[in-house]
Structure formats: C-alpha cells, structure tokens
C-alpha cells in the first residue's frame, strides 16, 4: 500500500482502486494518516474478513477523522465500486441495500471512502435475522470504573457462559470497554437477546454494586453496564479488528483470557493498528474459533 503520495492507483485482488487524500492526518495526536489506516486494513484483512463476511455492514463514516463530521451509514457510500457485494436488508423505515465486506479489496475500498469503522450484526444475510450464530455482550465501564473492572466482570461471565455450555472469547472494544463473543447454534434474535438479558440480570444479582443492566447514566456510576441489547437483530457491534474513531486510533482487538486476568491498568489492553498487526503476526487470529462450527453451543 502507498506511504506518501496523496493520490495513487493500486490494484487489490484484481480490482483497481484510486486511493485519495493519503496524506490526510486522521488522528492528530499520533499523526496517524489515512494511508496508514488503509495499509492496516490491507494487512489485517485475512483475519478480519472471516468475522464480517456474509454480514450486512454499516459504517461510521468520518472522512476527516474523529475530529471532523461523522455519521452512521447503512447504505453504500457514494462512490462505492460496482463490484462490491450488496444485500437487501429490511428495517422499520424500509429496505436498504447494504455492503457486505467479503474481501480485502472491499475493506480497503470502504476505508478509502472514509468508512473507517465497520459494524456488523450477529447474523448473516443468507440465513437472515432469524438465525443468529453468535452472542455478544458489551461491557461498558461507567464513570468511576474502567477496563480493569470490565476484565473482572468478564471473567465471571466466562464462567457463567461455560456453565451453560457456551465458550466466551474476549475482544477489547478499542474504546473503553470489552466485548465477549460466544458462537451459538443458529437461533432467533429474540432467543439470543432473551438469554443474554437473563445472563446479565443473573450477574447483576450476584454483584449489584458492580454491575448494571440499565442504560440510564445515573445508574451506571461506579458500575459496569452489561449491554445485552446488541443481540437484537436490528443492532450491530463494532467488528473485530476494526479501527475505532477515537482521539487515538484504537482497534477492537481479540485478546487472551490470560491477558484479561493479568490486566491491572487499562493501557495493558489497548492496542493501536501497528500493535495489532504485530499480534496477528505472532498469534494469528485469536478469535478464529468464533467462526468454526465445532465451537458452537446451544442456548440453554
């Protein structure tokens, strides 16, 4: 991928892409440029694409970076190549055509259009929203708590999920919190959401001073929110390995349970794109079991 020229034509998987504004600094605090983001996506695609392919994607678009205008886009961004896969998705407001990021070329093409954050649902387009194949819990620290506290909550949730025959995989969100994924045999969004809500309530019953399931900000002070609602068919979650549009370029990065247990400071589980690439080179895809049928559990 290009490093310095502000505009360059490249070929990715047989597709010609005209990359623009490559010298644009997206993250002023670190000096991280658009060219570096594109290079990251091109290199991380082999491990990221398996977690997003087949799923209708929505994007957080911020062409000038996190300090500029940003918005959530479900429809294909203007200028999207005609060869990028799209699928129809029904929403309350009607049916939209949404991108499916199924290749390195598609991932780079979207990032080139300023669609830097990739979000996907817990179901695939060919199966439809009635067949969720993974459960997700979003652990979000309220005021007075942090990622370290999320890590402690995650360890107990891992045990509860294991007791129910489900295998949890931790992913730092790239923002403040932690995501837990568990592969499941296909089930309806209502069934997965119902189980996730019950699990979160069970955890709150065990630790009422530590955990909350209400979105009300006043109730979240000093506690970790277990957001179970992202299992609803209409909801999406920041995809594993996506760049997050924060002051610094964080990444939603898979981590090991040993790392979660050892976390004593939030910075221990915060990674920039280059660090994530180094981790992939050393460990491969820590989240690979999420995509294999052998690890799927049945909801209780």
TrEMBL record:
**Domain DNA ligase D polymerase: from-to ranges:** 33-286
Keywords for this protein? Ligase
Q: What are the protein's GO molecular function terms? A: ligase activity
Q: Name one Pfam family in it.
A: LigD_Prim-Pol
Q: Does the keyword Ligase apply?
A: yes
Taxonomy, superkingdom: Bacteria
Name used for this protein in its record: ATP-dependent DNA ligase
Q: Native species of this protein?
A: Streptomyces cinnamoneus
């Amino acid at each position: 991928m290009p490093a310095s020229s502000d505009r360059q034509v490249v070929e990715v998987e047989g597709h010609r892409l005209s990359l623009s504004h490559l010298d644009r600094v997206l993250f002023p605090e670190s000096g991280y440029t658009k060219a570096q983001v594109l290079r990251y996506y091109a290199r991380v695609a082999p491990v990221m694409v398996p977690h997003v392919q087949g799923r209708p994607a929505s994007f957080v678009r911020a062409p000038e970076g996190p300090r500029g205008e940003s918005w959530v886009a479900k429809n294909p961004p203007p200028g999207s190549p005609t060869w990028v896969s799209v699928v129809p998705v029904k929403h309350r407001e009607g049916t939209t055509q949404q991108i499916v990021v199924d290749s390195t070329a598609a991932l780079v093409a979207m990032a080139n259009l300023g669609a830097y954050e990739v979000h996907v649902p817990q179901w695939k387009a060919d199966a439809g929203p009635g067949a969720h194949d993974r459960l997700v819990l979003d652990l979000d620290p309220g005021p007075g708590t942090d990622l370290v506290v999320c890590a402690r909550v995650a360890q107990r949730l891992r045990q509860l999920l294991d007791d129910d025959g489900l295998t949890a995989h931790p992913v730092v969100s790239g923002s403040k919190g932690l995501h837990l994924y568990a592969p499941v045999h296909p089930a309806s969004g209502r069934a997965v959401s119902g189980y996730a809500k019950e699990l979160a309530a069970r955890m709150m019953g065990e630790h009422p001073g530590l955990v909350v399931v209400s979105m009300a900000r006043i109730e979240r002070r000093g506690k970790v929110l277990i957001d179970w609602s992202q299992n609803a068919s209409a909801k999406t979650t920041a995809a594993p390995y996506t760049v997050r549009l924060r002051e610094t370029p964080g990444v939603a990065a898979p981590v090991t349970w040993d790392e979660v247990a050892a976390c004593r400071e939030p910075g221990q589980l915060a990674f920039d794109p280059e660090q994530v690439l180094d981790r992939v080179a050393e460990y491969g895809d820590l989240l690979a079991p999420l995509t294999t049928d052998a690890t799927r559990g049945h909801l209780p």
